[in-house]
Fold this sequence. Notes:
Elements: H1 3-16, H2 26-43, H3 47-56, H4 67-80, H5 85-97, H6 112-123, H7 127-140, H8 158-163, H9 168-174, H10 179-182, H11 186-210
Amino acid sequence: MTENLLFEIEEWVQDKLAECEAGHDWWHIIRVRNNAQKIHEHEKGDWHVILLAVLLHDVADTKFFDEFESLMLIEQKLLDLQIERHVIDHVILIIQNMSFSKQWSEEQFESHELKIVQDADRLDAMGAIGVARAFSYGGHKGRDFYNPDIKPQSYDDAEAYRSSDSPTINHFYEKLLLLKEQMNTETGRLMAEDRHRFMEDYLKQFFKEWGPE
Length: 213
Ligand code: ADP
Ligand code: NI
């Protein structure tokens, strides 16, 4: 991929994500790219596919965009830029299958590159950045940050997960603390360790400050 082509894709993505809340903006993409680069150094895989999927993955995020429409737009953009058909197909499959909510889908796609992109994205949901992103998203949705009367729950499908309006602290128990065990690659697992520990320490301190209920 030439520098110019990469630049054009980056500009296009920045434009698309301009209105997204702070946890899903262009800086999220930069952090995920850095994570992906570290994982790829050890785990190898097709960097061209990994990079394109990282850059484009949140343009089709169902929290902000219509998935079908966005995937068509992405496909068209990559075709216009004369990216090879098999690369386009792989990138689109990764984007369609990387979300946490895809665990409830019947059809599952697997590839080495998907595993790397998914780990890189999930690492950005953990640790200090993960805490910041969770409260940013919760605030964006107008949610309480904590309510002792509403307990964390488990979800049976993507729709229930997406439409839940439980407080942001519950999201740690419903998703963020589960991610360490769901890492796909050995490198991702190692990178997840101290981010996981940080979230546990953060929650301990949070409840200490909250005081008796
Ligand atoms: P994915 O990007 O894998 O589809 P999600 O959509 O569940 O995963 O979440 C992406 C990020 O958005 C989370 O890591 C978190 O930062 C934020 N987020 C999503 N849902 C919530 C929620 N209910 N409360 C707080 N933050 C959330
Ligand atoms: Ni993402």
